[in-house]
Target: Thiolase family protein
Amino acid sequence: MSDVCIIGVGIHPFGRTDGVEGIDQGVFAVREALRDAGVEWPDIQFAYGSSDAAGNPDTMVERLGLTGVQFINVRNGCAAGGSALFSAQMAIKSGDFDLGIAVGFDKHPRGAFDAKPAEYGLPDWYGEAGYMVTTQFFAMKIMRYMELHGISRDSLGRVAEKAFRNGAHAPHAWRREPIDLETILQAPMISDPYSKYMFCSPAEGGVALILASERKARELGCKPIRLKAATMRTRPPGSFEVFAPSIDIERGGTATALASAAAFEAAGIGPDEIDIAQLQDTEAGAEIMHMAENGFCADGEQEAWLAEGATAIDGRLPVNTDGGCIACGEPIGASGLRQVYENVIQLRGDAGARQVPGDPKTAYSHVYGAPGVSAVTILER
Model:
């Protein structure tokens, strides 16, 4: 089976864009991606779109053109964008299509996400106790992880410091001012051990990726980025995930570990062969835990990695090179696709001041959503 290729990318800046609807941010990203690929909207044979709070993606055909294109909406928590991409690449792998698009956008209101217990099969008491407020769940989970594996609060701060440093060089990022470690650690506490600078914020933005079969990419004369793997998994028994009301005595794996292992197997490479990684960092501790869950280090090794700068732009494994969710914010429908956008830009060598040195050839992305859904992609040029 031939590779699926990414031949065009487009992005609408993340953050807050007053007066611009979420769907119009998605349309902007689509037009940018079409221009980048050198194709027209009527050429697109299918589309998968993701949005959580800004309307149905398929309605963007009113703005792009009524071509009769097959357009399917995807809603899968914070992993919606990654799930849209997974679906899009499967459409091309089926052999029925040669050219399609994955697009995601969102426009969230200010404040924390307001999930309802019933939507996740949980009793009312779980929400009444405050555990549907994700800042509290994330804080409790990382406190346990820190105690088990010797991770210090300084490491949480180093993740955030890196995010703001990288985001300063990403034109699409929301937070573009570096913040020093001491300021991050001394900032007002939101949920112990997290200060306000250690969380991402709900945001706005849009991303679109044009996918093509290898044959179509050659026909168009593109220099494609190859999608060597795209996987998506849900949680196994015993997995401790968002909105889990308790921890099983007998622990299993995680959705992330399953998706990661499947992606490496599909790509035929291992974690030590990845040059760049974008990992879900809804909060600083998530990046730390996901370093291990995705197979890049053992639990507890993150403390030394971060102290040594191993995940910096010039480190042995640059992580979240555009600042991740912490610097960019998280518009749910677009966030997972932003990671892939960033990896494409890096592999093309077009990332400017945040460009990873050493001519990177492989890139990894991982997005995670409630109540335990993960999607992973591996790119190669």
About this structure: Residues 234 and 373 are 5 Å apart (CA to CA). The chain is about 35% helix and 20% strand. Residues 4-111+200-380 form a domain with the Peroxisomal Thiolase; Chain A, domain 1 fold (CATH 3.40.47.10). The radius of gyration is 19 Å.
